[in-house]
# Entry
Amino acid sequence: MKKFLLLIALLASSLTGAAQETSLKDIVSEYRLDNGMRFLMVQRPGAPMISAGWVAHVGSVNERPGTTGISHLFEHMMFKGTETIGVKDAALDDQLRAELDRLREQMFRLEREDRLKVRTGQAESMSDPALDSDEMKALREQFEAVIKQQRANIIKDQFDQIYTEQGSTGMNAFTNQDMTVYFLRVPSNKLELWFWMESDRLSDPVFREFYSERDVVYEERRMRTESTPTGVQNEVYNSMFWRGHPYGWPVVGWPSDVSAITREQAENYFDIYYAPNNLTRSEERRVGKECRSRWSPYH
# Structure
C-alpha cells in the first residue's frame, strides 16, 4: 500500500497552476489506482495548508443484528496506532492482546451460561449478584491485570502527537449510516507525512485497547442517548419507521451489541470494508472561507 501512496504523492506534486472555479467537476482531478482506490485532488493557490482525508464507504447500514455499532467503534480504533506507532514493545503488545482475547472468551462463556439462567428463571437479571461467581471474579481480576500491563506498554495518543508536532490540526473522524470519514489539515510541505501515516494505519492497523475502548463507546452511548430526555424514544421511533431496514438501528449501536463485540469480529469487519476499492482519498489546498473539503462517494 505504501508504494501506491508514493505514486499518489508524485501525482499530487505534478499538479501546477490554479484550477478555474467553475464547477466541482472542472476543479477536481480524479485518479483510480490499480487496486481500486479512488483519489480526488483539488489544487488552489493561497494558504499553505491542505485539507486531507479519506472515506471508508461503510457505516451502520453494513452491520447486522449482533454487531450494531461496530462501524462507530472503528472510528475510535483507527486512532490506536500500528505495529510501529503507539507502543513501546510491539511483541509484548501482541502477547497481551492474545491473552486479553483468551480471558474475554472465558468470560463470554460464563455470561452465556448466566443468560440461560435468567431465561429459565434461575436469576432475575444479568445484574443479579448471585450470578457473580468466584470464577468470574477471578477472570475479571486477571483481565484487569493484563489491561494494566498493556497500558504501561502503550504510548498514549502517539498517532495524534506525530501529526500535531509537524503542524497539522483538526484531526477527527465521524461515522454515519453510510460512511466513516477521517480528516485533518496538514501543512503542504508535510503532505508526504499524511500519505505515510494513513498508509500505515490502513495496511498495518493494531486494535489495541479494544475492550477498554469498547467500554468508552458504550459510555458515549449512555451519555448521548440514554441520558438525554428523548434519546431512547427517538431510537424506538426510528426502529419502527425503518422497520426491516438497517437504518432502524442507531449508528452508535444497541447496548447489548456494543458490549459483546469481539476483536475477532472487528478484524473480519476491517478486512471486508476497509479494502482499497472501498476507499476514497481527498486532498485540497485551502483558500479563504469559500473553500470546502470535496468528497465523492465511491460507486
Summary: The longest strand covers residues 49-56. Residues 1-21, 286-299 have pLDDT under 50 and may be disordered.
